[in-house]
Design brief:
The structure is a single chain. It is built from 17 helices and 9 strands. By secondary structure, it is an alpha/beta fold. Strands 1, 2, 3, 4, 5, 6, 7, 8 and 9 form a 9-stranded mixed β-sheet that branches. Helix 1 packs antiparallel against helix 3.
């Protein structure tokens, strides 16, 4: 692909897309990874290496920060990590007893009197109005347009789920002429992104109320972008990215360990199965959240690798011909992925810090039962506490540091990497 701007310091011969997935409070892990990448010498005081950014839910918050600070990637990622490191529950929702009690009363009225007098008084478990104010005060929304004008950013894509149509709406602010699409369950719209789009994308179902956005002159209501975005890599690929750098928020080894317990052989059944018990509602909710937030990335990466094999196989079978026959409406190409995921089980960390939740929220969580420590995923999504987020930032930073040479080569390439290091050393 041609450079998005011939004067760009990086000369984007192949566009690299940054994909940031959902995960509630787990989004702090992504901030840690990005902070370490921002410290790469070749990126110091330089623009972002990601001309395409796509995010949903917590990933929409992080993606907006990266896009808005595209002119100075190092400074932007430092500020993003600082933001997560100072995050507390009161900046996300109202944890006071009065607010929670009011919602509980509405719920009781809906259940007890709904059939006679109508229900629908409760739209969410908590009042999340503080989050909107927090995002408005801290996200560099004005930097998106200036980054596009300067050529440091091609497009930012934020996905939210329409509660009426059930479709995944990808709202895109980008260079004029950027791709758009309208599929059976996915639609892309060109917009000037605002805080309302980010807030809607991060609106965890049930926990957050439906978020209003004006679409085509009328108000529609949206929720978390991960609900319908089963292919999180798709927006970045459709926008032209030929390399994808994605940051997940789930430790794969933890999921594999739980699977091995469920599939324990007869010889191990007494020891392994004895640890299993009927799951409380909190554990069921955690699995539900995983299905929404965490499982899509792994499946989409598997699908991408399979498609790469098919495209490569076609190229080998028909040398010198187009990658895709002319009768196929959408051309296909090989897209190179790189994924960074947590080396530690974030649910275990959340379980050890659950006592730091606001007392009223902890009381409600306890009412759902106590899940296995490794299955405390619900807590990890909702534990908006600075001690937890700082722990996740540190894990993300370390994980990126362990793979920094690989990451640097993937993002910058050998020649650009060496040139950037030489320029940094000269200063």
């Amino acid at each position: 692909m041609e450079p998005i701007n011939p004067k760009s310091p990086w000369g984007f011969r192949r566009m690299t897309g940054l994909v940031l997935t959902a995960g509630g409070a787990r989004g702090a892990y992504q901030a840690g990874v990005l902070k370490r990448i921002g410290e790469i010498p070749a990126l110091r005081n330089r623009p972002s290496p990601f001309p395409v950014v796509a995010g949903a839910s917590a990933g929409a918050i992080n993606g907006t920060a990266v896009a808005g600070y595209s002119a100075n990637f190092h400074e932007g990622t430092r500020l993003l990590a600082q933001l997560w490191g100072q995050l507390g529950a009161r900046q996300v929702y109202r944890p006071d007893l009065l607010s929670l009690g009011r919602n509980a009363l509405r719920l009781v009225l809906d259940v007890a009197l709904g059939p006679m007098f109508g229900a629908g008084r409760v739209q969410s478990f908590v009042d999340t109005s503080p989050l909107r104010a927090f995002l408005a005060a801290n996200l560099p929304m004005e930097g998106i347009a200036s980054s596009i004008r300067s050529g440091h950013l091609y497009a930012l894509a934020i996905t939210a789920t329409g509660y009426h149509s059930g479709k995944a709406f990808t709202f895109i602010q980008g260079k004029p002429g950027h791709p758009l699409w309208n599929k059976s369950r996915r639609v892309a719209l060109p917009v000037a992104l605002g805080v309302e789009h980010v807030y809607a994308s991060a609106a965890i179902p049930l926990v957050f109320p439906p978020a209003p956005i004006v679409v085509a002159g009328a108000t529609a209501y949206f929720g978390d972008g991960a609900l319908r975005l089963v292919t999180p890599l798709s927006p970045a690929i459709r926008l032209g990215a030929e390399r994808i750098f994605a940051i997940g928020v789930r430790n794969q080894n933890a999921a594999d360990d739980l699977l091995r317990t469920e599939l324990a052989s007869d010889a191990d059944v007494v020891e392994a199965k004895a640890r299993l018990r009927s799951p409380p509602l909190a554990q069921v909710c955690g699995v539900f959240m995983n299905a929404i937030f965490l499982d899509h990335l792994d499946a989409d990466v598997d699908h991408l690798l399979r498609m790469n094999e098919l495209v490569a196989g076609y190229q080998c079978a028909t040398p010198g011909k187009a990658v895709v026959p002319s009768r196929v409406s959408e051309p296909m190409r090989i897209v190179e992925p790189m994924i960074v995921s947590p080396s530690e089980d974030l649910a275990m960390i959340a379980a050890s810090l659950q006592h730091r939740m606001p007392r009223a929220v902890r009381y409600l969580m306890d009412a759902l039962g106590t899940p296995d420590a490794q299955s405390a995923d619900l807590t990890s999504y909702l534990l908006f506490d600075s001690e937890f987020t700082r722990a996740l930032i540190d894990i993300g930073y370390r994980d990126a540091a362990q793979r920094i040479a690989e990451i640097e080569h993937f993002l910058l390439g050998a020649e650009t990497q060496q040139a950037g290091e030489a320029a940094a050393a000269g200063r």
